[in-house]
Automatic annotation (TrEMBL):
Sites where the protein binds Fe cation: H159, H184, D185, H255, H281, D314
Pathway entry: Polyol metabolism; myo-inositol degradation into D-glucuronate; D-glucuronate from myo-inositol: step 1/1
EC number: 1.13.99.1
Residues involved in substrate binding: R87, D146, E147, S148, K188, G202, D203, H281, S282
GO biological process, any: inositol catabolic process
UniProt-annotated location(s): Cytoplasm
Entry keyword annotation includes Cytoplasm: yes
Binding note for cofactor: Binds 2 iron ions per subunit.
Name of the featured protein: Inositol oxygenase
Family of the protein in this entry: Belongs to the myo-inositol oxygenase family.
Pfam families assigned to the protein according to its UniProt record, in alphabetical order: MIOX
Gene that this sequence comes from: 106084216
Organism annotation: Stomoxys calcitrans (Stable fly)
Keywords: Cytoplasm, Iron, Metal-binding, Oxidoreductase
Amino acid sequence: MVRIKSSVSVNNEHFKERDRTTNYYYAKSGLDGLFVNKTNFTFTKSNKKQNIRKMRILQEHQLDFIDPSELLRPEPTFADKQLSKFRDYSIDENDPLKERVRQTYRLMHQNQTVDFVRSRHERWLKFNTLKATVRQALEKLNDLIDESDPDIDLPNIVHAFQAAERAREEYPELDWLHLTALIHDLGKIMAFYDEPQWCVVGDTYPVGCAWGESIVYRKDSFEGNPDGENPLYNSKYGIYKPNCGVDNLMMSWGHDEYMYQVLKHNRTKLPDIACKIIRFHSFYPWHNGGDYEHLTRPGDDETKKWVLIFNRYDLYTKSEKIPDIDALWPYYQTLIDKYLPGELDF
């Protein structure tokens, strides 16, 4: 669910319904069944059944906008869950969280085809959706709650600063890495412009070749995807040449690929490795599952090394300790001015 302040419009629609305990309005997310909140609260909008539905509200979890690729990660230093509970993609139809994650991946795997990805390139790589500075984009995305852990309610901007500060602590001399951590999720801004959740968030993988064995829900989640029946796309190499390199893969569409393309289009001064970190940080079947090695080439190991370094900041810094964002802005504004100044075309 997209939770918005009363001044924000989503899908060109203002909804009058309001949760009076939080003073937040609620708007369509683009995927059926995404409306949940802490309180037992239901509401409808007359004559707008296609836009807002009667909702049963779940009490245990507040889950406004889940990025499944950031859920239940295997890091013992983050949270107090048993190690066996991390990265748990087992199927339990009675568990609303697990079922929601599974259905997100089901829609992704069913619909992310070569033709679909090309259509998203046609839609988004004109870079004519909006103009915004990095700060404006971060603050806009702040209206979108990305709750990757069901027990923590983190606006995206808080997570962005937590990740950036962790990178700054470990590598104080690499200011480009600090900014990379700050902006890595900016591609999720697509969620405000009619893109459904399954093509904004989640683990990514290349289209146009056989799907990797370590992809979550791999066994039956791709049923109905026409590329699986297309001999041009369903072989080990598909449309690619052996050892073509990960840079030459057509990745499934999501916020990673989009933000990478935004950076390149706007001629960022960030080093190329920063752009690759953003592009591949959700490519778990490769950098975590060991798939697609037959498509890699010399140099890709360096990319993988930095992606794995970065993921420590991305996935495991979420906590209820809130950074002093106002105090931190001046430092990060100097990095924005250095590497991504002015308005960007999104």
